[in-house]
Design goal:
By secondary structure, the protein is α/β, with parallel strands linked by helices. Among the domains are: about 1-90, Arginyl tRNA synthetase N-terminal domain (Gyrase A, domain 2), CATH 3.30.1360.70; about 170-240, no CATH class; about 430-545, Orthogonal Bundle (Isoleucyl-tRNA Synthetase, Domain 1). Helices cover about 50% and strands about 15% of the residues. It contains 19 helices and 15 strands. The strands form four sheets. It has a five-stranded parallel sheet, with helices on both faces. A four-stranded antiparallel sheet has the order 1-2-4-3. A hairpin with a 3-residue loop joins strand 3 and strand 4 (about 85-90). Helix 7 crosses helix 8 (about 200-215), helix 16 (about 430-450) crosses helix 18 (about 490-510) and helix 17 runs parallel beside helix 19 (about 520-545). The longest helix is centred in the middle third of the chain and has 26 residues, at about 225-250. The chain is flat and about 85 Å long. It starts with a helix and ends in an 8-residue tail after the last helix.
Length: about 550
């Protein structure tokens, strides 16, 4: 917000002037934080600058606040007051709010989309589930949060790319092929046994059936090695297609699908060689170990096994190195909470390779618990296994599932109430927000019937009711909220904002009529409603949730 930046600069200038006047000693002026107070009586903005700068200026916060207020100069300023030990509450002229709303309306659909930031691109990698079975609800939470985060970063002006890491190398793929092979042989009455730790899901049987329907028994003539080679590729292709389909239905699309196979052997070998050069790899019991304890891990980790095969860690080291080498300045990984212990060793490897480990941000997703009728739901009725993302979408829809997944911080456990997600009432948070958007669309349809339209320059000063003012204030805070949410990697803030904005609109509309009042007021209120609708639509777009015109 321009006014917020102007106010921050005015406070900074007041501090500089106090230094020039000899009231404050010279020193580095700390960053100025402005917040919107919880109560309107406390002003439009508040800052704790006086407390933050007490050490720098070696004065009591209240005295600092007095000197700042005395020198604070801003055209939009009505007054500034000191509260408590040194908080500065700032009150702006009433006209400022209308000017900000006018600017917001003028910005049109781009309002909330921020200027491009000049910085190295960000890579966000998320979901990255093994392509050995369907996505479950835990993957769904990662998909919703990850895609919302990517949307948020883009809207906030960050250069960002999204990536799915396909685990298409290693034992799980061999086990997938062997599991399909066993089911295929069973279909033709051949002796077969699922491998140890094999995949027992109905989807494996379905894959075997599709192979049999397409090609019959032709693969029985092949050796097991040849048959496994064929089934490995067929099953992988099919599972990836199913993953893509589920994710597409969930409004999730990736810029890049990165194959783990492309890392082997060259990139893995090269990464390990680099670690050897740096003296962070040693040999023990025929295996190669990373000195991860030197970087904070609880023990050193094997990267190359005795048999010469790389571990998952070796591939992950090569993969993250590859990301940095592709020019990404920050790597964001969204992992399940069960990978908590893995964070330290990957960061250790990055540091050992010479990269800043702080440039690798690992966000850990906590568990999702489903509830129906107040009782936990752990298994799919259809398969007796974990509930899949596809089943969840089928039951509650994409919009509800995405909103429910995103509205809680990813580091908190999520209790997902299936009954609530299906409710068409204000109790359901996504319905509540979407209904506000649809209600405004209905208002515009009614306005069109009576030929009431928004003028190019409506008289916004007619908006004086407390519900109108509250709505305007929320709207004008939106760009700042987008900026903060992106900086904190916190898309849940956008969900909360959308809910608050919908609530403010419902309060406004229940008190302030649009039709049947004098025309200038009606047009001003219609303009306010239209801007509210645009902001709701923009926020829902970030969340990957639709904004219906009718409900």
């Amino acid at each position: 917000m321009d006014i917020k930046n102007s106010l921050s600069e005015a406070i900074r200038n007041a501090a500089k002037q106090a230094v020039a006047d000899g009231v404050f000693p010279a020193g580095e002026i700390p960053a100025i934080t402005l917040e919107v107070p919880p109560k309107k009586e406390l002003g439009d903005f508040a800052t704790n600058f006086a407390m933050q700068s007490a050490r720098v200026f070696r004065l009591p916060p209240h005295r600092i606040a007095e000197e700042i207020v005395r020198r604070l100069s801003l055209e939009e300023l009505e007054r500034a007051e000191i509260a408590g030990p040194g908080f500065i509450n700032v009150f702006l002229r009433a006209e400022v709010l209308y000017e900000e709303l006018e600017q917001a309306i003028a910005a049109g659909e781009s309002y909330g989309t921020l200027m491009a930031k000049e910085r190295e691109p960000i890579m966000v990698e998320y979901v990255s589930a093994n392509p050995t079975g369907p996505l479950h609800v835990g993957h769904g939470r990662g998909a919703a949060v990850g895609s919302a985060l990517v949307n948020l970063l883009r809207v906030a002006g960050y250069p960002v790319r999204s990536e799915y890491y396909i685990n298409d190398a290693g034992n799980q793929i061999e086990t997938l092929a062997a599991s399909v092979n066993a089911r295929y042989l069973e279909l033709f009455g051949q002796p077969a046994e699922l491998p140890e730790n094999g995949y027992h899901g109905a989807d494996i049987i379905d894959t075997a059936k599709r192979i049999a329907e397409k090609d019959g028994d032709r693969y029985l003539a092949l050796s097991e090695e040849e048959r496994l080679k064929v089934f490995r590729e067929v099953a992988l292709k099919e599972k990836l297609a199913a993953l893509r389909e589920d994710l597409s239905r969930f409004n999730v699309r990736f810029d890049v699908w990165f194959s783990e196979r492309t890392l082997h052997p060259a990139k893995v070998t090269d990464a390990i060689a680099k670690l050897r050069e740096n003296g962070t790899i040693y040999e023990k019991d025929g295996a190669l170990w990373l000195r991860s304890t030197d970087y904070g891990d609880d023990k050193d980790r094997v990267v190359i096994r005795e048999n010469g095969e790389p571990t998952y860690l070796a591939a992950d080291i090569a993969y993250h190195r590859d990301k940095f080498e592709r020019g990404f300045g920050t790597l964001v990984d969204i992992w399940g909470a069960d990978h908590h212990g893995y964070v330290c060793r990957v960061k250790a490897a990055m540091k050992a390779l010479g990269y800043d480990p702080e440039k690798l941000r690992i966000l850990l997703l906590q568990m999702v618990s489903l509830y129906r009728g107040g009782e936990p739901v752990k298994m799919s009725k259809r398969t007796g296994e974990s509930v899949t993302l596809a089943e969840l979408i089928e039951e509650v829809g994409t919009d509800a599932a995405r909103y429910f997944f995103v509205m809680r911080s990813l580091d908190s456990q999520l209790d997902f109430d299936l009954d609530l997600a299906r409710k068409q009432s204000n109790e359901n948070p996504v319905y509540y927000v979407q209904y506000a958007h649809a209600r405004i669309a209905s208002i515009f349809r009614q306005a069109e019937e009576i030929r009431l339209t928004v003028e190019e320059d409506p008289d916004l000063t007619r908006l004086t009711d407390e519900t109108e003012i509250a709505l305007i204030k929320l709207i004008t805070q939106y760009p700042d909220e987008v900026d903060k949410a992106a900086a904190d990697y916190a898309p849940q803030r956008i969900a909360h904002f959308a809910h608050d904005l919908a609530g403010a609109f419902h309060s406004f509309y229940s008190k302030c009529r649009i039709m049947g009042v004098d025309e200038p007021l009606a047009k001003a209120r219609l303009a306010l409603a239209g801007k509210t609708q645009q902001v709701i639509r923009h926020a829902l777009g970030i969340l990957g949730v639709s904004a219906p015109e009718k409900m």
